Amino acid sequence: MPSRRLQPLPTGAGAPALPIILRAQRISSQPDLRTLAEGEVEFRRGGLVIEADTLSYDTPEDLARARGAVRITRSGAVYTGPELELSVQRFEGFFLRPEFEFPALGSRGSADRVDFLGAQRTRATNFSYTSCPRPDPNDPQSAPDDEPAWVLTTRSVRLDLQANEGLAEGAVLRFLGTPILALPVLSFPLGDARKSGWLPPSINIDNRSGVELSMPYYWNIAPQRDATLAPRVITRRGFGMDSEFRYLQPRYDGSLNLDWLPYDRLAGRSREALQWLHEGRVGSQARFQAEVLRVSDNDWWKDFPNANRSLTPRLLPLRLGAERPFSMGAAQGLVYARSLHWQVLQDAESFIDSPFQRSPQIGVRAAGALGRADSGWEFAVEGEFNRFTLPADAASAGRVVGDRWHLVGSISRPWRHPDWWVVPKLALNVAAYSNIERNSERSADVNGGPSATVARTAQRAIPSFSVDAGMAFERETQAFGRTLQQTLEPRLLYVSTPYRQQNQLPNYDSAAKDFNFVSIYTDNAFSGVDRVSDSHQFTAGVTTRLVDQASGAEALRLGLVQRVLLRDQRVAPQADGTPDGPPLEQRLSDALLLGSSNVLPGWTLDGALQYSPDLSRSVRSIFGARYSPAPFRTVGLTYRLARGLSEQVELGWQWPVYGSRRATGAPRAARAGASSCTGTWYSVGRMNYSVKDSRITDSVLGLEYDAGCWIGRLVAERLSTGRSQATTRLLIQLELVGLSRLGSNPLKVLKDNIPGYRLLRDERSEPAWAVPAAL
What we know:
about 775 residues; mainly beta; lipopolysaccharide transport protein A fold; 26-stranded antiparallel barrel; disordered C terminus
């Protein structure tokens, strides 16, 4: 269908062969020589569109000259200015005093002159760039010459798309009229490809180290290798260096991080931290992994909490492993060899017991159909050898170490139907121990008494039988003004496991499972291999759900489950989580109740309750409510109780507190003027209050200011590092939308700590070429 307006076509290899299309109020032409167009001129060739008051085109030279309100549209960029001269096919020429915009990116700029040196290269003189919008002519407080809130200016800039390089000379970054960064040369990539150079500086402030200033340098060594070197100065500690080396090869990849302080003035010594992550494969299936994390001293985790790279800051792993999957008829399996060692960071206020080390751990496991794939019988088996040792530290002295062989297997014949299932299963847990002895670091028990006599070998075999059955009923119903699908899902688990005395055996990896809706439907009350709970019991529960038929979203869930002991359980979890203690004689276990709902608009409610029939009260509970009526508006309150152990209240939020904002919650772009204060202030934070200790433990408090083209963040984080110690960090960040983020990075802290937190701008909202990935 014909179009009333000429639109730019996609550029490509065929663009030079496309004809010229010209439209104007008046056109005069000398065929094959010169054409003159006047009045609302529109010139188009391929993906290039030129609009002007007048335009002359020299056919032999393929040269277009445009005057008066010239506008170029090409590849999503729009240039406007008074005068243009351009060799169309070669895209060579100049544009005087142009202003340019990138509508898709929300950024703009200007220059005294732009020289087009071909389709891939451009040079500009006295160039400026910003993402702040133009002054509003309808705003009486806005002047046309208002300076943007932030602007990057350069004497000259060269862009080479083919080399993926931008080079600016005399670069100055101004924020609210004040120069905050000035460099004689600014180099940056024009796409996602990497480029060597200086990265934006980073600033961290905390009460233990003072102010830390880091200036990273990125080194693009090769397409498969790169490195980042970050010299840093810490006011209270001295000079340091952080480094990261990454590699990516067809058969292996990994990274190496080294943090180094040659001399820490506070500690009076050199301090280091090393992390190495490596993965690879041998042949078509075999894989190997390595994870090494080590630090120089016990205080590292407290002094540098932002540098911790482990989920458990005081337990640092050294893992090595290799594995190879295999097929066995209708079953799949894995053979593996691993080694695990720990570095334990001890604290004088709170010693911790190290987990056992495994060196080596060699095993094989398989699961699948027994016999033919359609036989209906299923099996799972795991056989493993472990040598358990302990790190050389005082807190581990006197504990039993040794070797263990174990075989854990099961066979089942499940019957499954969309409305019901029945799974009878027979399981066997066999373990043999040898070379059992006290940890050689100290020939005494953990309480400092004389060493007890330890049997050198031991073994046991424990069978178990279980039947897991359930049903699912569905019906359509109307509630809360919606058509819903209601389900009723009863479930019954029977377990029979004979008693075997086990308290004389070592315990290397068993602990009581957390009592919840998942663990109550398992055969064994303990994780690991060393302890198996004797059982003659039923577990019965029911769950009902309301599901929105239109969206498939779950509107409501309620559940209740309880276990019934048919005889005393002699190997039972204790209150402190240990497996060896007095028998469990409670016939009815604690009842578990759970519920969740998002029926109320904007509200999410959830809770879980563990109720003791013997005490006639709850012993553990967690209740949470979160209100999120719109994006960037969320507040949540959580209450946790473990009777006799802890009681905590947690509050988290992200909420606009001042400034213009739309009902949808999306931040509104502020006026471009430096003196404008029409943005939006957001309060963000999380506070965890211990009722038992009557104090705030961990907390995050901050403010975000969204001015449209820039965002400021100020966040304080307090982390408990001991009973009477805490580390407080101050994170300050200035985000220039469309350019870069300067300062420390509080975003990970906010996302990890505030449920429902949303970034005011997407991570990739800025163009890759506009971010000075190398300064």
